[in-house]
Amino acid sequence: MIKVLGRASSINVRKVLWTCHELDLPFEHEAWGQGALSLSSPEFLAVNPNAMVPVLVDEDLVLWESNTICRYLASVYGDAGRELVPPQPRARAQVEKWMDWQATELNNAWRYAFMALVRKNPAWGDGQAVEASIQNWNRHMTILDAALGQGGPFVCGAAFTLADIVLGLSTHRWYSTPFTRPELPHVARFYQQLCQRPGFLKYGNNGEP
């Protein structure tokens, strides 16, 4: 059986857990990191020398990097009823574009504000840097709002895909972090759509930003 290693409070672990749920895929979940099993242990470093979660173990295959894990699961275990990545190259590229944007541009925008306002990490205490991060975060969410306004109800159109999983978790974090946000009607509608999905309610909207 597939194993997912990593604490369930991690946004990147939740990507994988939610993907497994959407695929109706049985899995074992082992909590590693921050109060659970140590990421610096030889046992964990043997599967991911970066000492980061999540890690997927599928028989003799070991993967890290959350978006890569989600792509693998969708490609191997998806079917016509649970197709999270389109088989057509152009449609697939659209999904992967938004996944990569989430992992690079969007994540980098929110990191400073999140660490300061939610994690309360004193190393992220520069008020000007916090405000700059908030502004950048809101600007990126405005980009998402514009894309959702072109069609929908999901990021790449009518079908729910992996892009919605990764951006849905980022949207949940945006709503959960205490700062002033602009009104983005298409993002709000998108978020309400996600709140109707059991996988999101179990692994995404679970009280953790």
TrEMBL record:
Key word Transferase present: yes
Domain GST N-terminal span(s) in chain numbering: 1-81
Keyword entries, A-Z: Transferase
Top-level taxon of the source organism: Bacteria
Record carries keyword Transferase: yes
Molecular function (Gene Ontology), one example: transferase activity
Matches recorded under Pfam families: GST_C_2 (PF13410), GST_N_3 (PF13417)
Domain GST C-terminal: 88-209
Family: Belongs to the GST superfamily.
Record's protein name: Glutathione S-transferase
